[in-house]
Amino acid sequence: MEKGLRQLPKDVILNHIIPYTYNTQPQTHLQDIRSYVRDYSFLDNIYVFDFNDVILLNDLLFYCNQFRHYYINVSKKLTGIVGRHFMITDEKSALDYAATKLTGNPSVNHRIKIKFIWGLMTPFERTDFINTTIIDSTQDLHD
Questions:
Q1: Is residue 2 predicted with pLDDT exceeding 70?
Q2: Are 119 and 36 in contact (CB under 8 A)?
Q3: Residues in Cβ contact with 119 at an 8 Å cutoff, skipping those fewer than 6 apart
Q4: What is the pLDDT of residues 78-124, one digit of tens each?
Q5: Residue 65 and residue 77 in contact, taking contact as beta carbons nearer than 8 Å
Q6: Whose CA is closest to 114, among 27, 52, 68, 71?
Q7: Sign of the C-alpha dihedral, residues 6, 10, 12, 15?
Q8: How far apart are CA 6 and CA 8, in angstroms?
Q9: Sign of CA dihedral 48, 37, 129, 132
Q10: pTM (2 decimals)?
């Protein structure tokens, strides 16, 4: 981070970055950050001890793809979530990214893919994922 800041002109740092850091952030943005950290920590604890990153990635993709196998068909919900990334500008780019980078490309670290998807999900989607994938499935085991 420091290396990147050193490469920026001082004018940009002093007149744009520093003032932005003192701005009050929207409540929804702060709630999203808290949700990401708290829910990811919970998720990490569950999957580290009981499962692994491959299973978590598959569960996330299965949830985001409306409980359909993503290697057969990528849903509009998954492309919609991927399309929230600021670098993805249209539905075709989102579909290509979901099909090649998330569901394919096994050389990319699974943890990176998991955090990418988790960060693009809304707090509601994260909570729903935990409820439907983790809590409901553990209740089914005890019934």
A1: no
A2: yes
A3: 36
A4: 888 888 888 888 887 777 777 777 776 676 788 888 998 999 999 99
A5: yes
A6: 52
A7: positive
A8: 6
A9: positive
A10: 0.75
Please give the residue that has the higher pLDDT: either 142 or 72: 72
C-alpha 24/C-alpha 38 separation (Å) is 21
Instruction: State the Cα–Cα distance between residues 74 and 55, nearest whole angstrom.
Output: 18
State whether residue 143 is helix, strand or coil. Answer: coil
Compute the C-alpha angle 114/64/88, nearest 5°. Answer: 70
Mean pLDDT of 41-51: 86
Q: For residue 31, is pLDDT > 70?
A: yes
Q: Identity (one letter) of the amino acid at 143?
A: D
Structure tokens at 16: 């744009």
DSSP codes joined into one string, 116-140 = HHHHHS-HHHHHHHIIIIIIHHHHH
Q: Which residue has the tokens 């002109």?
A: 9
